Amino acid sequence: MATIHRATLEPDKVTIVSRWIADRRWYAGTGTPALRQLAAYRFDDPDGEVGLETLLLLDESGASPVLYQVPLSYRGAPLESAPERAFLGEMQHSVLGTRYVYDAAYDPVYATELLRAIVQGGSEAGQVVADSGESRPSTATCKGSGLLGTRPRHGDGTQHDLAVTSARVLTGEQSNTSLIANVTLDGQELQVITKVFRVLHDGRNPDVELQGSLTAAGSTRVPRMLGWLQGGWTDQATGTRHTGDLAMAQQFLPGVQDAWREALRAATDNRDFTREARALGEATADVHAQLAAGQPTADADAERVAGTIAGMRARLEEAIAADPSVAEHRDAVERVFQRLESADWPPLQRVHGDYHLGQVLDAPGLGWVLLDFEGEPLRPLAERAEPDAAVRDVAGMLRSFDYAAGSVQQTDGLDRTAWARDARTAFLEGYAADGGLSEQDPLLRAYELDKALYELVYETRHRPDWVGIPRAAVDRLATAQSTGDDMNTERPQGDSPTTTGARTGSTASSVYLARGGGQGRLAAPLPGRAAAPAAAPAPTTGDERADGSGPAPSTTPRPTCCCAGCTAGRTPPRGAPEQERSDRARAAPARRPRAAAPGRRRDGRPAARLRGHLVGPGARRRGARLPGRDDVRRRRRARRRRPLPLPPDARRDRHPPDR
Ligand SMILES: Nc1ncnc2c1ncn2[C@@H]1O[C@H](COP(=O)(O)OP(=O)(O)O)[C@@H](O)[C@H]1O
Ligand SMILES: O=P(O)(O)O[C@H]1O[C@H](CO)[C@@H](O[C@H]2O[C@H](CO)[C@@H](O)[C@H](O)[C@H]2O)[C@H](O)[C@H]1O
Description:
With 659 residues, the chain is α+β, with helices and mostly antiparallel strands. The protein folds into 2 domains: 2-252 and 545-580, no CATH class; 253-544 and 582-618, Aminoglycoside phosphotransferase (APH), C-terminal lobe (Aminoglycoside 3'-phosphotransferase, Chain: A, domain 2, Alpha-Beta Complex). The chain contains 13 helices and 19 strands. Strands 2, 3, 4, 5, 6, 7 and 13 form a 7-stranded antiparallel β-sheet that branches. Strands 9-14-15-12-11-10-19 form a 7-stranded mixed β-sheet. A hairpin with a 6-residue loop joins strand 4 and strand 5. Helix 6 runs antiparallel to helix 7, helix 6 runs parallel beside helix 11 (442-462) and helix 9 crosses helix 12 (468-483). The structure holds adenosine-5'-diphosphate and the ligand O=P(O)(O)O[C@H]1O[C@H](CO)[C@@H](O[C@H]2O[C@H](CO)[C@@H](O)[C@H](O)[C@H]2O)[C@H](O)[C@H]1O. The site of the ligand O=P(O)(O)O[C@H]1O[C@H](CO)[C@@H](O[C@H]2O[C@H](CO)[C@@H](O)[C@H](O)[C@H]2O)[C@H](O)[C@H]1O has 21 residues, from helix 9 and helix 11. Pathway: Glycan biosynthesis; glycogen biosynthesis.
């Protein structure tokens, strides 16, 4: 039971969050936040010392409102282990005195209580007002799923035993916030990653839904899901009740590399990547077969095909708005999309939806393991949850090989056109072992072009330094479409865009060179000499540090106390250092393995073997980080950062009473 006080707060919570949120990696807005609190829920600190409150805040500063989940922890003394960016500021509480407000992701007490709610099927804390003893209903609710795949033990009066021995936050290019914890669960030691969704949507989050169903079906192509937390809240302004996923927990695979890092190293060294790419194609086909078997499918009827084409056309218009020069390709792109009307569509199915090299891990003993089924962040959630052509994912991964080459071109001036071509070919061979999917496939062509257009918009918004990579791809793909060129073909520098170059060998040319110059475009290398990087790589922020997981103190259950402000005898927990996450690709769209029988590949081989998940020792190693969305945003925000003026009535918050 959380004890709340009738108190005044200065500044109030929304103000304190408003001053801090704009610089968060996961904040999607670009201007001054305009936050409105929709609801909140709390967890209990068993020690009764730390206030744990999660605010659901609607940001109405942009064209469409975005709902954020902001867990806060309120402490009576500074949390020494928290990094500066996790500190939101001090709040004067008229009953409890100074409260130190933190991003709760960095508070080990929150990490423990969140995970406990997930695996034990817990709910939000009840609330009681201190002076009257009256109970106060929570404006938001939450409910954990319980540990997936095990029978809840509620019946016999026992719970899954959970002790969190240390927790840390994963940092880097993340759309959400992930906490990595060393836990003992029912006597077994393991590492768990708990992802707190930052942007909330009404409805199931595909990440939870798909990884949950893959785990339940015994797939080893995703880390084992442990459970999730669902929430309910009401928009008081409209009276509408919403439910959505708040967080999910899964087994953390330590010491693994993601495919983006591996591919980037291989591309830099011009090392063959075809074996890995082929295996990645096979893994992708496995997951598509598993999703087709476990989730609803739909016929690609005229209405759905028309809807898909309409979505692609809308994307084209967005890309033109982001870069008006794309308009020169409008007719060519339109022809590619039109061919979809008469194409041979497979049944539609659930797909990954944002598939790229940064979304797959090379797990020892498991092979390629897929992550982050949330779909493209720029697409509405309802659209992402629709059955789609599996070729969307294939196209996404093809683009990602192109990105790896483009990135090497951009940072080192090295032409890796041939490297990307070979990797793409091998990936397709692995995916369609019967050779049944070629780059000429009308669906694949359209989806790849669509993805490149998406990337152009994405990079314009988030990483302008990278925009030359998709821009060059749109040029190339659109032109290849109109001339019937092989899209895998490199084009010697200086040739007209319609000239097809040799398919082998590396030249000073590169298909990754965007036309023209200008900000964000790739510099063309001078013949025989490496190009200066168009954008200096951001300083390396370090790997996910092997020593970065200093243990937090034991957070074993403590006696419940209603005195929320009491700090007596309590040493602030230490630990929770952060991890560095790789700069990831966030990509898109694939093709459904044709008529694969459930559990079988299209060539009739078994789709996936059931294997136990291994958790090996050791820390993950990471290479130098590339300039990412973080860097671009940091620069952008540094330019516009200024203190937010406090509205006169924001100085005091009489409602609601608080701990
Ligand atoms: N189960 C896991 N085991 C190991 N690393 C993981 C796991 N889940 C996520 N990661 C790491 O965290 C990163 C972010 O995860 P992701 O699910 O893509 O988060 P987001 O939705 O915030 O982008 C991944 O790129 C990967 O490096
Ligand atoms: O991972 P997310 O779901 O957030 O995906 C978004 O961000 C990606 C970048 O982090 C972006 O991916 C693009 O860049 C990658 C290299 O960083 C590259 O490998 C991908 O192919 C490319 O699409 C993704 O598109 C976006 O949705």
